[in-house]
Design brief:
It is a single-pass type I membrane protein. This protein is an alpha+beta fold. The chain is 15% helix and 39% strand. The protein is elongated and about 200 Å long.
Length: 276
């Protein structure tokens, strides 16, 4: 008896490889980086380095102090200087300083500064032959010196010293202006009388003038502190002479017109009678 044949060898199992799927992964979405708004909160520490452009901070500039407002009309002040129980000097006047200065365009122009009596302190001294009056205001001062001349029996203004620190319109900065004229003979009047003028200008230098408006001044021999008889300035004397002349001429013309009208009326009346 034959032994059974051996079993056939197992057939190799064909394994067809399955294709591998190579599907690429989905693309990543780009991350949107929205810039955050800049906060206006102030930090005490060092500021972060932002890429946002900032406007340059303007540089602070120091401005000059405002100029005092000048009144449109020069106010008249009343100033006195005492000697013992009475007065040795009295002045009623409005004052204006006129100064030539350089403006921003480097031109030479004239400016005016009015002394304000409400903001002015006054003082003075008296002796037998000299009297002084000093006006002190925030922007400066004016010093008047009056002399007595016994030979001429008169008193007059012999010296004016002025100092002003002020910024005129179109000037680059406030400037101190100084003037001193010790060779004057102004506001002269006989002793016991007062000097009176509507408008009088006194030159202190080529670039500095003092103008007195509606002034009445008397130094020495004031009876009871009152002004003596007024001695008018030459300019006002001319006006005082011209005014009566003008009034006389006008009155003469009116009288002439009346006489002519009267004569014409009488002539017409006679002509009417003759026609009848």
């Amino acid at each position: 008896m034959r032994p059974p044949p051996p079993p056939p060898p197992p057939r190799p199992r064909l394994t067809t490889p399955q294709p591998t799927r190579t599907t690429p992964p989905p693309p990543r979405r780009p991350r949107l980086t929205t810039p955050r708004p800049t906060r206006t909160t102030r930090h005490h520490g060092p500021a972060p380095n932002h890429t946002t452009a900032h406007k340059p901070t303007p540089i602070a500039t120091t401005t000059a102090p405002p100029r005092p407002t000048q009144p449109p009309v020069v106010a008249v002040g009343n100033y006195t200087v005492k000697q013992g129980a009475g007065l040795c000097l009295r002045a009623e006047m409005g004052l204006q300083l006129q100064i030539r200065y350089g403006d921003k365009a480097k031109r030479q122009v004239w400016g005016a500064f009015a002394v304000q009596p409400k903001h002015t302190n006054f003082s003075g001294t008296c002796s037998d032959k000299m009297a002084t009056l000093k006006l002190q205001f925030p922007e400066g001062f004016i010093l008047f010196t009056f002399q007595k001349n016994e030979t001429e029996k008169a008193a007059y203004l012999s010296q004016v010293q002025a100092n002003l620190t002020y910024q005129f319109p179109q000037a680059t900065e406030a400037t101190t202006f100084k003037a001193n004229n010790a060779s004057l003979r102004e506001f002269a009047a006989p002793l016991g009388k007062s000097y009176q003028c509507r408008n009088r200008s006194v030159g202190l230098s080529d670039t500095f003038r003092l103008t007195a408006l509606s002034e009445r001044i008397q130094a020495f021999q004031l009876q009871g502190g009152n002004f003596g008889e007024a001695e008018f300035c030459p300019e006002q004397q001319k006006h005082s002479i011209v005014l009566p002349i003008v009034v006389g001429v006008v009155l003469g013309l009116l009288i002439l017109i009346v006489l002519v009208a009267f004569a014409v009326g009488r002539w017409r009346g006679r002509t009417g009678y003759e026609s009848l």
